[in-house]
Amino acid sequence: MALQLTLKPYERIVINGCVVRNSSRKSTIVIETKADVVRGADLLSKKAAVTPVNQAYFLVQSALTEPDLQDKLRSPIQKQLAALATTFGPPNVQLVFEAANHVSQGDFYKALRCLRPLMKREAEILGAHIPRPASVQDEMDREARRAAREAGEALPDPAEEAAPRRSAG
Length: 169
Fold this sequence. Notes:
Elements: E1 3-7, E2 12-15, E3 18-21, E4 27-31, E5 37-39, H1 52-65, H2 70-85, H3 92-105, H4 108-126, H5 136-150, H6 158-162
Antiparallel strand pairs: 1-4, 2-3, 2-5
């Protein structure tokens, strides 16, 4: 079954370790064979890997985006996940076990999916004690806006997109 992705202007995705950036218009691509695909919004920068769950996520992400490193990273990932298993209780510990199982099977994308809720839970636990580091998507958004300016195109500022719009009348 094919995977259909709709990409925003200048959005990046990683397909089997290859970074692909969309042009200035929204477009749709279809991936017809099995491939490891990660959207830029789901990527974590190395600077952001400051907490135990983020570190595990970054290791799994590295294995997914750099296929040559998968065998080398499998053991460090499993060790990091084993440490997390002692940290979380039910039901979150089940997500750690599922992630470890997916890593053992070489399905790194599913392991990332298991870790995302744990990242949210970890942020809730730590609260304001850790700063939110920039994600890879934040860095890519800045680069896309810079590329659009150089090309003479205007990209909306994310802050403006989030602001509520008022209707006339």
